[in-house]
Design brief:
single chain, about 110 residues, mainly alpha, about 70% helix
Amino acid sequence: MVDAAAYGAGATAAAWLGYKTDKALQEAIEREANRREYKNRCSEPPPPGLSPCELAKWNLNKAQACKDLRNANTNRWWGGADNEQSSQLAQDLDNAIRNAKNAVDRICKKECP
């Protein structure tokens, strides 16, 4: 917990939250908003009532969007690599896209000969 007395009556929100400047606080807010955006998209459940082909296409779109959002977030805040898990995560996202493409090819061919 932050000691309010240490910052005085005129302290900014940034100081109260432990940031040196309002700009640093704003950047932290933006970084967290970007992180949540891609995390929410990557964990989003499919809408109910989709046919198997529609579900396969939805999963492909989700996997591609997840990778795009992850890359945008990583490029914006960490210059393309945020930690040692980045390369493994990129491989996992590529595998998810490849698997989703295969599912679309396999499932949608059966529905529409």
